[in-house]
Write a structure and sequence with these properties.
Helix content: 40-55%
Shape: rod-shaped
Number of helices: 4
Order of helices and strands: HHHEEEEEH
Largest sheet: 5 strands, mixed, barrel
Oligomer: single chain
Number of strands: 5
Radius of gyration: 25 Å
Length: 160
């Protein structure tokens, strides 16, 4: 039974657990702690390390992987950004959004815009999946968008 709880196996289980937790937690950080655990597990298969040495090795391996690989891995796994980063610095939002919860004035609905869901109000009704133009924030709010129908030219261009 003691063979089940050898230090290398505990480090291996910790590394795999942290790597799997990365799938559920945003931020792309836990995978590097998992890599540090795996390095310690591999070293324990070859070397007899004290707990202090294991902790130092974990710390160093984690920092080296985090500093050395995070930027590289973010380029691979982050994907492409469809929005010009300069546009995100603008004070007033604009662009095209998709309605995910019907908008029935005066009751606001919800839209998907730039990778997030926003409350949105309009002066006319919009059904789910309709494309709308974002015209800024709703009056007196920084968390609700004002939307309106897309211009006819934009709608026909998106149909083709």
């Amino acid at each position: 039974m003691n063979d089940l709880f050898t230090p290398w196996l505990l480090w291996l289980l910790a590394g795999v657990t942290l790597a799997l937790l990365e799938l559920a937690v945003p931020g792309f950080i836990l995978i590097f702690f998992g890599a540090g655990c795996l390095v310690v597990a591999l070293c324990l298969l070859v070397l007899d390390l004290t707990l202090t040495q294991q902790l130092w090795l974990f710390l160093i391996a984690t920092l080296v992987s985090l500093i050395g690989l995070r930027r590289f891995a973010m380029r691979i796994f982050a994907g492409e950004q469809a929005v010009n980063p300069v546009d995100q610095l603008l004070d007033e939002p604009h662009g095209t959004a998709r309605v995910v919860q019907a908008i029935r004035p005066p009751v606001p609905g919800r839209v998907a815009w730039r990778g997030s869901f926003w409350d949105a109000q309009a002066e006319e009704d919009f059904e789910v999946d309709a494309l709308v133009a974002v015209r800024g924030y709703a009056e007196g709010s920084r968390s609700q968008l004002q939307v309106e129908a897309l211009p006819a030219a934009a709608v026909s261009a998106q149909d083709h």
